[in-house]
Specification:
Elements (H helix, E strand, L loop, with lengths): L13 H14 L3 H19 L22
């Protein structure tokens, strides 16, 4: 399934960046993939808790992207 994507630039705390970089170096998990997966999981939990108030951002599913899809 194709999902249209938009680019986002965000400053994050150094400790968080270092953890993302460490996971990339140790496990080969792209930083973008980790952040997108975390946000999708977060919004999936919100959507389950407040279904009537907010439209589902992700409907509880991930995009299907793999770390290899990250530029």
């Amino acid at each position: 399934m194709y999902i249209d994507k938009r680019r986002l630039s965000v400053a994050i705390p150094m400790k968080l960046y270092e953890r993302l970089e460490s996971d990339f170096q140790n496990y080969g998990i792209a930083k973008t993939y980790t952040v997108v997966s975390a946000l999708m999981s977060y919004y999936a939990s919100i959507d389950r808790q407040l279904p009537a108030r907010y439209p589902g951002v992700c409907q509880g599913t991930r995009t299907g992207d793999s770390p290899a899809d990250t530029p």
